[in-house]
Write a structure and sequence with these properties.
With 129 residues, this protein is of the alpha+beta class. It is 29% helix and 19% strand. Strand 1, helix 2 (43-54) and strand 2 form a beta-alpha-beta unit. It is globular and about 40 Å long. It starts with 6 loop residues before the first helix and ends in a 7-residue tail after the last strand.
């Protein structure tokens, strides 16, 4: 199986729309959710999406894509700092306190056409594997 955070896998998601080149060409759905920015005040929203992905086939939260229409913006400034500053161990502990079974996830930044995007991938729960 292809690593879900590999450049090859992410290049399948990050492509421009053929109808409108300012938009991402991959739609939201059961495995992809877009967020314009990243901020700690929205943590519960992110955790709910991660739980939903874990209960299905896994999925991506991609930060830096505007909602409706899905305009490619990238993360900048404080939003990018906050995303890059996620303490994986602390976040995993927080998730374990609220969800069972444990939600397995990874994050990375991805550069697409000179803009930086935050990508959070949630693996399917073990019962679903």
């Amino acid at each position: 199986m292809l690593n879900p955070l590999s450049d090859e896998r992410l290049s399948r998601i990050f492509k421009r729309s053929t109808r409108n080149p300012s938009l991402i060409g991959t739609n939201e759905g059961t495995t992809i959710e877009y967020k314009q920015s990243f901020g700690w005040l929205s943590l519960s929203e992110y955790l709910k999406a991660m739980a939903a992905f874990a209960n299905r086939d896994g999925g991506y939260i991609i930060f830096g894509v505007k909602d409706r229409p899905h305009t490619l913006l990238g993360l900048k400034g404080k939003a990018l700092e906050n995303f890059e500053g996620i303490d994986n161990q602390k976040w995993s502990t927080h998730i374990r306190e609220h969800f069972a079974p444990e939600i397995i996830w990874e994050k990375r930044t991805y550069v697409f056409e000179g803009e930086v995007y935050g990508v959070l991938y949630t693996y399917p729960a073990r019962e679903n594997r």
